[in-house]
Design a protein that fits this description.
The chain is mainly α and about 220 residues long. The chain has 3 domains: about 1-60, no CATH class; about 70-145, no CATH class; about 150-220, no CATH class. The protein is about 50% helix and about 0% strand. The protein contains 9 helices and no strands. It has helices spanning about 1-15, 20-25, 45-55, 75-85, 105-120, 130-145, 160-170, 185-200, 205-220. Helix 7 (about 160-170) crosses helix 9. The protein is elongated and about 60 Å long. Residues about 20-45 have low confidence and may be disordered. Bound molecules: heme C (HEC) (2 copies). One heme C binds near residues 66, 168, 180 and 213.
Length: about 220
């Protein structure tokens, strides 16, 4: 039993190429604390078990996760494929986490992991999308990607609001274009981002700073 656990840890580390992370996150295999319900009839390691283990090993590197209903066009084929294939190892990633330019690089890293894992048949039942499905996933992600703006294109770049916006809002994803939302929508989005900051362990902005950022975004947001 103990040997099987160590074997699985070794495979996961090799496949993910993340041996450094274990050292970073503390010491020894006892910290990895393999979850109890890991062994299932479907394979050596069930999906829930693998997700749980990854979450413990590298919480900072995995997507925070949104619900399928929060996806843009949740009933579209691309959204369905994303839910089917991209929740096998971690929470559902939001298409807004990356720009259209960034997604092909991220997804090709994910597809190669899936193909390595699915090659180990019986050990971890990971499903690999066909090449048409892979294309559909990438194009869905690109269509609904974060529309970002380079800091030099910002309106009133020297203002206090712009400076705070740049510092605060590019920590987890590229700087969003203020034209993505209307003045009505921005306060709610920034509230949600504040709770993202809390769950992802990033620096949380004060209420004054939030007012400043929201003021800037509503001034330069989309008009309708
Ligand atoms: C075989 C397991 C596995 C599957 C399936 C998988 N991922 Fe990942 N994913 C990982 C691992 C491991 C990490 C953390 C290391 C890294 O970022 O490469 C990660 C991290 C991420 C991140 C955060 C890091 C970043 O670069 O933003 C995103 C976003 C992501 N995955 C998207 C996806 C998408 C989209 C899919 C579906 C096409 C997917 N993943 C399917 C294993 C997987
Ligand atoms: C702690 C990490 C983090 C920080 C800091 C952060 N975001 Fe986000 N952001 C996310 C995550 C995760 C998502 C995808 C899930 C979601 O939409 O909540 C996202 C998605 C978005 C989206 C696309 C979704 C939508 O509703 O349009 C926008 C726009 C956005 N963020 C704006 C901002 C702004 C403005 C700030 C600065 C106040 C900010 N973000 C700071 C993590 C962060």
């Amino acid at each position: 039993m103990k040997n099987i656990r160590l074997l699985i840890i070794a495979i996961v580390l090799i496949v993910f190429g993340i041996t450094g992370i274990v050292a970073m996150h503390g010491s020894g295999s006892s910290q990895l604390g393999m979850p109890g319900g890991m062994m299932t009839s479907g394979g050596m390691m069930g999906r829930g078990g693998m997700k749980e283990m990854m979450q413990r090993m590298m919480p900072d590197m995995l997507p925070l996760g949104i619900t399928p209903e929060d996806l843009p066009l949740p009933d579209s084929p691309g959204a369905k494929l994303l839910v089917r294939y991209c929740t096998q190892c971690h929470n559902l990633p939001s298409p807004a986490m990356h720009t259209a330019e960034q997604w092909p690089g991220v997804t090709s890293r994910m597809f190669s992991r899936m193909s390595m894992m699915s090659a180990m048949i019986g050990m971890m039942n990971v499903e690999l999308p066909s090449s048409e499905e892979q294309q559909a996933i990438v194009s869905y992600l690109k269509t609904n990607a974060m529309k970002s703006l380079s800091p030099s294109e910002l309106p009133a770049p020297g203002s206090q609001g712009a400076v705070l916006f740049k510092e605060t809002c590019s920590q987890c994803h590229p700087l969003p274009d203020p034209k993505l939302h209307t003045a009505d929508e921005w306060p709610k989005v920034v509230d949600r981002m504040q709770s993202n900051m809390r769950s992802m362990g990033k620096k949380i902005i004060t209420d004054n700073e939030k007012t400043e950022v929201v003021g800037y975004l509503t001034r330069y947001g989309r008009s309708k």
